[in-house]
Amino acid sequence: MTAGEKQAAKRVAQLREEIEEHNRRYYEEAAPTISDRQYDSLYAELADLESRFSQLATPDSPTQRVGGKPLTAFAQIEHRAPMLSLDNTYSEEEVTNFYARITRLLPNEKIPVVIEPKVDGVAVSLLYENGALRYAATRGDGTVGDDITQNIRTIREVPERLRGAAPKLLEVRGEVYMDKRGFEKLNEEREKAELPLFANPRNAAAGSLKQLDPAIVAQRPLGVVFYGTGATEGVDVDLHSKIFAFLKKLGFSATEKFWRADSVEKILKAIHELDHIRRDFPFQTDGAVVKVDALAQRERLGFTAKSPRWAIAYKYEAERVETRLIDIVVQVGRTGTLTPVAVLEPVLVSGSTVSRATLHNEDEIKRKDIRIGDTVVIEKAGEVIPAVVAVKTEARAGKEKKFRMPSACPVCGGKVVKDEGQVAVRCINSQCPAQLKRRIEHFASRGAMDIEGLGEMMVEQLVRRALVREVSDIYTLTADKMSILERMGEKSIGNLLQAIEHSKTRPLWRLIFGLGILHVGESASRALAEHFRSLKKLMEASAEELQRIPDVGEVVARSIEQFFQEKRNRKMVERLEQLGVRPQIEPRRVPSADSPFAGSTWVVTGTLSEPRDGFAEMIIQRGGKVSTSVSKKTSYLLAGEEPGSKLAKAKQLGVRVLDEATFRKMLAG
Q1: Do 621 and 492 share a structural domain?
Q2: Strands (E), 81-195
């Protein structure tokens, strides 16, 4: 590998880590810390490097995925047709290039397009069968999303039954938004209650849809705009421009304002006209979407790995202003990441007063040479948390101070680490208060200790009332202690205590995974449990010994070693044992060489007779591996009812497809 290739590989690793962290904040926490423009810049740099150094492109890169992974708190729904994201641009020249490109692909054809507002909300997909709402889901990773049916029913624009002659099947796509005035009122109420404020209406809408209690969602000022369809049966519409009237006729609140154009000049004119009126809409907009009108032409233009070739999103420029950076403080995120934040002289930008802005990380501060006392340029795109984008170095007076990240966690005083080749500085104390809620949620999640009833809202109450100060405190809860909690009757308390008791004897790999060790996922947890057969032996293992285990590389090994070197983490594990947590040591299973499971890779999809996790466990115990996506490396697809797009992809790649009956015959021998 040449020096240039090594440098590119290092930068690719940094970009992927940073982008994945921003994806998690945006999709899973609804709390982004950078503007769309800054995210798009990072993404474009990664895509360019992967294009120039093809050996660095991998299937798990953020450039190959649509959005964030689905949340574990909700059931999962597989979309009938994938929900792909659009290519973004901030350049009118690239819009011109887009139209030139599609005219080259369809020569000698007139190609009208539709220009419509890009609603800055949460993408959703609703399925109607014979006119009745069956379910609603978020975009998720583009293939699978969260089941938010009960929450979506609380939005008045969502019809329970369609009007008139409804089609047999209709998958309708839209954006859930929070009314701008309602957003301001909600933040005023949260401020009075001393709750964290939402950064913008989009975050507020996303946070609302993640609520586990539909009664809370019903109190939020949510709306929805529908703009298109996915899978359909019995729908006879050949132009996108006809979709809006079709949807309104059925009872949907569809896009009101749109333009048709058949030249670059008309497209750009429509984009400018939209920019002049978009602030009058009740919802937030951050751009214009340009789509080929004729569905037949769309089909011939096709798709790239994650985006349609027949559409592009043009983003409007964000407002930028100058102010003085008074100080830099450090916040600790739920995963332990230390994030520097700029304290600013208050300044008006995008219609509101700003006094803080994100600085992302220490490397970014050094790269931009940001100093305390500087005059800085800030940007607040789409009312997201503002960011410092430039420094006016010519305005320096010589008294400005350089910033250094703290050597200890500013919240708990614990040890912080920065892994070689990585950007983030993290607190590795698992009991750090800033990380507590998220760690408890992870520990209790279905993929870890599977404590039903210990979800986000319950954890919030337990931590707020100081009933749980660390993960092991879960096992000290009693009916008497929980009697003070809101909406917790005797039956609910009894069910939760029973679930906590049952979790004490979960398999060892679940406990390892539940500890939340950085970089240790489910696959590595299984490998560690299989190798060490004891949590005590794992705690004493060196990084060198850990690296001999499959699925454990240098980065993971170093992370495990650092985790157990922290005294507080060791004490937490010891206390779990004292409180009766006795993980099961599963018997070693060595599949015979001629077993169809040995070395095989499976994907499980559709509705089966029991949860998919159970089938995954059967496969893994017999020597197979389970993946979430179909690829050329997939050996088998286990397909239940309504398998969705994974079945089509498996057939396309020649992957063997089994139904449940055939799978059980394979289990039997």
Answers
A1: no
A2: 88-89, 113-119, 122-129, 132-138, 144-146, 169-178
Q: Are 126 and 174 in contact (CB under 8 A)?
A: yes
On whether both 324 and 308 belong to a single domain, the answer is no
Full 3-state SS string of 331-373: EECCCCEEEEEEEEEEEEECCEEEEEEECCCHHHHHHHCCCEC
Q: Tell me the C-alpha distance between 656 and 327, whole Å.
A: 60
Compute how many other C-beta atoms are within 10 angstroms of the C-beta atom of residue 567. 11
Same domain, 443 and 368: no
pLDDT at 538 over 90: yes
Interstrand relation of 656-658 and 636-639 (parallel, antiparallel or unpaired)? parallel
- DSSP letter at 507? B
**What average pLDDT does this structure show over 468-496?**
91
Instruction: State how far the Cα of 184 lies from the Cα of 192, in Å rounded to an integer.
Output: 13
Q: What CATH number does residue 518 fall under?
A: 1.10.150.20
- CATH number at 148 reads 3.30.470.30
* Contacts (Cβ under 8 Å, ≥6 apart) of 145: 70, 76, 77, 79, 83, 125, 137, 138, 139
| Torsion on CA atoms 449, 453, 454, 455, rounded to nearest 10 | 110
**Position 496 confidence tier, pLDDT thresholds 50, 70, 90:** very high
What's the token pair of residue 218?
A: 């019903």
- Same domain, yes or no: 310 and 452: no
Lowest mean pLDDT among 37-41, 279-283, 299-303: 37-41
| Total domains present in the chain | 5
| Domain assignment of residue 380, given as a range | 320-395
Same domain, 149 and 58: no
Tokens linked to 239: 């132009």
**Rounded Cα gap, residues 664 and 56, in angstroms:** 40
Contact predicate 170/206, CB 8 Å:
no
- Report the side by side order of strands in the sheet with 259-261: 88-89, 311-315, 285-292, 113-119, 259-261
Q: Which two tokens stand for residue 478?
A: 């009693």
Strand, coil or helix: what is 185? Answer: helix
Give the three-class secondary structure for 532: helix
> Is there a catalytic annotation at residue 646?
no
- Contact 303/323 with Cβ under 8 angstroms? no
Residues sharing a CB contact under 8 Å with residue 21, sequence separation 6 or more, in sequence order: 337, 424
Say whether 137 sits in a helix, a strand or coil.
strand
What is the separation of C-alpha 623 from the centre of its chain, rounded to a whole number of angstroms? 30
* End-to-end CA gap in the chain: 47
- 65: pLDDT strictly greater than 60: no
Are 437 and 542 in the same domain? yes
Residue pair 342/388 in contact by the 8 Å Cβ criterion: yes
Does residue 127 share a domain with residue 12?
A: no
Q: What CATH number is given to the structural domain containing 59?
A: 1.10.287.610
Report the chain's C-alpha Rg in angstroms: 26
- Classify residue 124: in a domain, yes or no: yes
**Average pLDDT of 256-260?**
94
List the catalytic residue out of 10, 118, 437, 646.
118
Residues 100 and 241 in one domain: yes
Q: In angstroms, how far is CA 576 from the centroid of its own chain?
A: 31
- Let me know if residue 570 belongs to a domain: yes
Helix H segments across 164-291?
180-192, 201-209, 214-218, 240-250, 264-277
What SS3 class is residue 260? strand
Confidence (pLDDT) at 287: 92
- Report how far residue 415's alpha carbon sits from residue 437's, in angstroms, rounded to the nearest whole number: 19
> Final residue of a domain: which of 315, 332, 351?
315
* Residues near 347 by beta carbon (within 8 Å), at least 6 away in sequence: 321, 322, 323, 353, 354, 378
